[in-house]
Amino acid sequence: MHAVLLAHGKPCPVSDLFGLSGRRLLERLALPQPWAGTVGASVRMIDELDREIDALEAELRTLGADHHYVPLLLTVPGIGWVLAYTIAAEIGDIGRFPSPRKLAGYTGLCPRVCQSGESDRRGSLVKQGPKYLRWALVEAAVHASTHPVYRERYQRTKTRLGKQRGARVAQVDLARRLAEAIWHMLTRNQPFAPAGAANPLAA
Q1: From the CB of residue 30, how many other CB atoms can be counted at a distance below 10 Å?
Q2: How many CA atoms lie within 13 A of 115 on its CB side?
Q3: Which of 76, 114, 155, 197 is deepest in the core (most CB within 10 A)?
């Protein structure tokens, strides 16, 4: 839809083309066919997908309402209902993991380690373990990167590694930190607390 506007020299002064102001803009465009039909079909497709997403989120809320991990996970920066339920379902019983490091290793968010004699090299992520848990933690990290608790660490890592790979590595680093904080939370049955608090869980 943005490509159609660009092709016809139509500016897009709104930040969200599919929000209320964006919809009004699209209605006023009066594009010729077949582009008007393409825009109309795209809007209908978005509306249908939004309805399906809303129904699935409502179902997840119902399924996760009795899960004792979900209310705790909702206190973590960057974690909403969908991610909380996904993480709770993928972790299972937190007692399976004797330490936060074991849980972080289970997520597959740890780099490969190649050791030989005095050589110790770190490679790409092992990406073992449940992929949906890994996805949920990285997704949470993207949102948590702007939270005051994690913003400075994220920016420091991102700047140190440069534009090409800094943001991605910083997100993975933050996802591991979230996994470790989650282990402390679920093990102690306590909500999230920032580093430096009386019972720091983000450390």
Answers
A1: 6
A2: 4
A3: 76
CA 65, CA 46: separation in Å to the nearest integer? 28
* Helical packing angle, 81-91 and 166-188, nearest 10°: 70
Would the CA dihedral through 187, 192, 196, 197 be positive or negative? negative
**pLDDT tens for each residue of the chain, 203 residues long:** 888 888 888 888 888 888 888 888 888 888 888 888 888 898 899 999 999 999 988 887 787 667 889 999 999 999 998 899 999 999 999 999 999 999 998 998 876 544 445 544 444 555 677 899 999 999 999 999 998 888 888 888 888 877 767 788 889 999 999 999 999 999 999 999 765 444 555 54
Instruction: Determine if the pTM surpasses 0.85.
Output: no
Among 157, 136, 130, 134, which residue's Cα sits nearest to residue 145?
157
Residue 67 near residue 88, CB atoms below 8 Å:
yes
Query: Element (H or E) spanning 119, and its range?
Result: strand 119-125
For tokens 């848990």, what's the residue? 133
DSSP β-ladder status, 111-116 and 119-125 = antiparallel
